[in-house]
Backbone:
């Protein structure tokens, strides 16, 4: 057994330490791609998971100090690329990858982060239409949260001045990119909400790459917008750039210039609108007046009101006419025209026929005035 | 005064309501005249409100005490 005694005999700890040394010295900076599985985020903040492909599995740990800068949350099934060093967990003799950086494969980390935050806030209801506030029609004071040196504030002022020269704009200067940007933007929105007389807020910046616009994809900004009592217009980058702020805001403007256009219709539009209503007001009143005055003149020309005497005269005439006809019927009127009535003296009978009389009968003839008493000589 | 407190959009809304009522023509002459007078007042108020705001572009700064100051904003385009 000489040969054996000449060989070095390791303890488990010794060999594990050697393996660790060999691994760490030769595989200390490697990129490994695989699918995340068995992901656990421990309460210590460390992440434990495995990377696997079709044939093999590799244990991984990403310590808190490394994972706190992760923009997205790794999930089982996600394809990722990890950078780190191989090491051995001596207590178990497992080898593992200590992950320093992790990137989603295919899409960028920011894109993943964007989708994750969007989904989270959507589920919380931050994008719900019922939370959207109406913009004031004619805001007196407009608060703007953006960089004092950026293109956004220039564009906003230009458009507002052109459309409505006499508006009051208050700029809250903030950084719009970099690590402090999100905090400053959120603070500015909160601060504006402590003022009484700001009617609407424009929050935004000019265009840039996704990283430049990132502050507007941060949760702290989204929540500040959501909590704002004052209606917020989000105006970030260009038409094609959608940010989380755009989803939470009461109104999304494709660009800062567009925000300025949305915030107030042009003064000319307002004035012509008012003139229009005023014209309708006058026309409506005029037509009421016309109707009333034509009713009035119809009344004034009515027969009774024009010549009250006429009516009386007409009655008079009618009365005369009727009395005239009555006169015509009266026997005395006939007598006045030369006719006479003859009666027999003996019985007073009116004589209508000569055969009623004989010779020597006494008759009385009544004339218009007076009577004649006569004796019949002969009957014809 | 009450007219001062009226917001532009509320004044416009009220004005439109009055015009609609007058256009309906179901009001008495007295009521029509009252509404018309109010309408004229509101039209003037709206025009006035459009013209009264002062153009001002200010920039806000927060003092160490947490209070705010405003000063005129000098954009590089002006």
Residues:
């Amino acid at each position: 057994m000489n040969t054996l005694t000449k060989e070095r005999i390791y303890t488990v700890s010794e060999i594990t330490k050697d393996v660790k040394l060999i691994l760490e010295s030769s595989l200390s900076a490697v990129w490994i791609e695989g699918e995340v599985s068995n992901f656990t985020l421990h309460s210590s903040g460390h992440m434990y998971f495995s990377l696997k492909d079709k044939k093999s599995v590799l244990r991984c740990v990403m310590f808190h100090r490394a994972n706190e800068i992760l923009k997205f949350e790794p999930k089982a099934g996600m394809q990722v690329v990890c950078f780190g060093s191989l090491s051995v967990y001596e207590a178990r003799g497992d080898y593992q990858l200590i992950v320093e950086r992790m990137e989603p494969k295919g899409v960028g980390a920011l894109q993943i982060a964007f989708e994750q935050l969007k989904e989270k806030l959507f589920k919380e209801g931050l994008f719900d239409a019922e939370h959207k506030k109406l913009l004031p029609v004619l805001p007196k004071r407009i608060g703007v949260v953006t960089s004092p040196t950026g293109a956004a504030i220039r564009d906003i002022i230009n458009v507002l001045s052109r459309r409505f020269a006499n508006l009051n704009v208050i700029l809250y200067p903030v950084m719009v990119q970099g690590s402090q940007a999100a905090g400053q933007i959120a603070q500015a929105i909160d601060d504006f909400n402590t003022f009484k007389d700001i009617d609407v807020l424009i929050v935004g910046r000019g265009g840039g790459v996704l990283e430049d616009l990132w502050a507007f994809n941060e949760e702290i900004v989204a929540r500040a917008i959501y909590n704002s009592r004052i209606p917020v217009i989000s105006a970030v980058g260009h038409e094609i750039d959608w940010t989380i702020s755009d989803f939470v805001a009461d109104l999304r403007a494709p660009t800062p210039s567009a925000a300025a256009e949305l915030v107030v219709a042009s003064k000319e539009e307002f004035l012509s609108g008012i003139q229009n209503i005023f014209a309708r007001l006058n026309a409506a009143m005029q037509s009421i007046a016309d109707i009333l005055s034509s009713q009035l003149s119809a009344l004034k020309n009515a027969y009774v009101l024009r010549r009250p005497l006429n009516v009386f005269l007409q009655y008079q005439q009618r009365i005369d006419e009727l009395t005239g006809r009555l006169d015509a019927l009266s026997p005395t009127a006939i007598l006045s025209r030369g006719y006479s009535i003859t009666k027999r003296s003996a019985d007073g009978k009116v004589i209508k026929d000569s055969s009623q009389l004989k010779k020597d009968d006494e008759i009385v003839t009544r004339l218009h005035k007076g009577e004649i008493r006569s004796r019949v000589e002969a009957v014809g | 005064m009450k007219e001062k407190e009226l917001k532009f959009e509320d004044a416009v809304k009220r004005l439109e309501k009055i015009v609609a009522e007058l256009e309906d023509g179901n009001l008495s002459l007295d009521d029509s005249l009252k509404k018309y007078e109010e309408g004229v007042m509101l039209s003037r108020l709206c025009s006035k409100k459009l013209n009264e705001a002062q153009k001002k572009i200010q920039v806000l700064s927060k003092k160490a005490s947490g209070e705010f100051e405003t000063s005129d904003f000098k954009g590089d385009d002006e």
In short: The mean pLDDT of chain B is 79.
